[in-house]
Design a protein that fits this description.
mainly alpha, 6 helices
């Protein structure tokens, strides 16, 4: 299981948050920090917050869901705890926060555009593939969750499974 978990991390969030932004920064010639200390500080805070959220949700997938974040090794149980009790896609929110944080740290429009494109691609994927698969795998349990927990804008209160 640990190897599957590591493989999923390396293929998915590591590429999205480290490799692709580095390639964008390299080819745009923007490999130095922004000269605006406030942008750098905000970027670091966003990146750190996103990393915290990403790690938290991946641990929930492993410990509660008994699977990984990867579609080829999905969770066996529906995860509705922690941040998942407020929003359906907190893992992606963490990744997006990390990418936007990087765009601020390096004052890079290229990385910001990558973050927007990543969000759009994943929104399309979630609506037309992942949510359909979750409905098939978890049936009414997921349908009830989907009715009560928004996709992107977190609820103010935790949703509890009845």
């Amino acid at each position: 299981m640990k190897l599957a978990w590591l493989r999923a991390i390396m293929v998915l969030p590591f590429n999205a948050t480290i490799i692709i932004p580095l390639v964008i920064l390299y080819f745009s010639g923007c490999l130095s920090f922004s000269s605006n200390v406030y942008l750098v500080a905000l970027g670091i805070a966003m990146f750190a917050s996103g990393l915290f959220l990403l790690v938290w949700t991946m641990l929930l997938f492993a410990n509660v869901g008994k699977g990984t974040l990867a579609p080829w090794n999905p969770t066996k149980k529906l995860v509705v705890e922690g941040p998942y009790s407020r929003v359906r896609n907190p893992m992606l929110s963490g990744v997006i926060a990390m990418i936007i944080g990087e765009s601020l740290i390096f004052a890079s429009w290229g990385v910001f555009i990558w973050g927007a494109a990543f969000f759009a691609i994943n929104t399309f994927y979630f609506i037309f593939s992942e949510e359909v698969g979750l409905e098939k795998r978890f049936g009414e349990e997921y349908a009830t969750y989907k009715k009560n927990v928004p996709r992107w804008i977190p609820r103010l209160t935790r949703w509890k499974k009845q």
